[in-house]
Amino acid sequence: MNIYIYPVLNEREANYLTQQLPANATCHFNDGSNEFKRAKDADIAIGNIPTDWINDMPCLTTILLDSVGIDNFNGYDWPENRRITVCNLQGFFSAPVAEEIVANVLSVYRQLPALQTAKTSSAWEKDAIRFTKRLVGEADILILGYGSIGQQAAALLEAFGATIHCFDTTAMKAKGKNGLIEAVAHCDILISTIPATDTTHNLLDREVFNKMRAGAMVINVGRGQVVNEDDLVIKALADSTFTACLDVTKQEPLPAHSPLWTTPNIHLTQHTGGGCGNENIKKIDVYVRQIRRIFDGEQLEHDVFFVKN
């Protein structure tokens, strides 16, 4: 069985993968050149391979994504008379992203950006900053999307005493954007974890931002397409008490000319929220379990959808 690995692994990671696979599994690694010839005979593809490869991969039966999101398949016209199983990394990033959310909240509420600016200027700003600090335990927090990341973040934030509200996909369908606008009017922090869909595109816009309380904070760890970035910049420039923390942006890498870079009360974590030092090793453990299930004829975990046109 041929296995193609699209994410570029270092030597240690590649050896860790191959040593755990069945003897009749042959690995073909992407060396960074993204050459299709390495993938064309694969039965299993690991990673978010380009969709324009799939038609020309006649043996492909399974795609094991290296993400939770399936955005790269949006609008893709799957091959006819084929059944391809796609599995994502559901739940994999919940712990690190939840910690990233808490880190952002604490950083802003405890005025770490302002203190870092003062340090850069060698300015003793104790009296100016001390009494502007806030307590997370006094915050009303609305979590938009209440999957595994939202639930884990809620548990961590509740430990500080914060009041948690959620606006999940069920609420979105029932109440729509007007319901969301009503909900944000009563919150200090809005955390978005929802995926990108036609319904959520530019969902967070000036209507939402302007309805939030004074000194509000927006955190987006879901998908960049959910935020109207032009409206966000306008809000941030007009209201110095407003803060946004973006782990994701519409375009990645973010262009150097984007005003998101230069707006002081917008903080960027550059899609690193799900990261940790052994991230690839942990992913490989998931892939190995899935591949063993294939060899043993067992049902795969976290299958997103089956396609058969």
Question: What does this entry look like structurally?
Answer:
The chain has 9 helices and 12 strands. The chain has helices at about 10-20, 95-110, 110-120, 125-130, 150-160, 170-185, 205-210, 230-240, 280-295, and strands at about 1-5, 25-30, 45, 60-65, 85, 140-145, 165, 190, 215-220, 245, 265-270, 305. Helix 8 links the parallel strand 9 and strand 10 (about 245). Helix 2 packs across helix 5 (about 150-160). It is elongated, with a radius of gyration of 22 Å. The model has no long low-confidence stretch (mean pLDDT about 95).
Question: Can you give me a brief rundown of this structure?
Answer:
By secondary structure, the chain is α/β, with parallel strands linked by helices.
Query: Which percent range describes the beta-strand content?
Result: 15-25%
Structural category is alpha/beta
Poorly predicted segments: none
Order of helices and strands: EHEEEEHHHEHEHEHEHEEHE
Distance linking N and C termini: 25 Å
Radius of gyration: 22 Å
Helix content: 25-40%
Query: What summary fits the major beta sheet?
Result: 6 strands, mixed
List the helices and strands and how they pair.
Layout: E1 2-5, H1 11-18, E2 26-29, E3 44-46, E4 62-64, E5 84-87, H2 94-109, H3 112-120, H4 126-130, E6 140-144, H5 148-158, E7 163-167, H6 169-184, E8 189-192, H7 206-211, E9 217-220, H8 229-238, E10 243-246, E11 266-268, H9 279-295, E12 303-307
Helix pairs in contact: 2-5
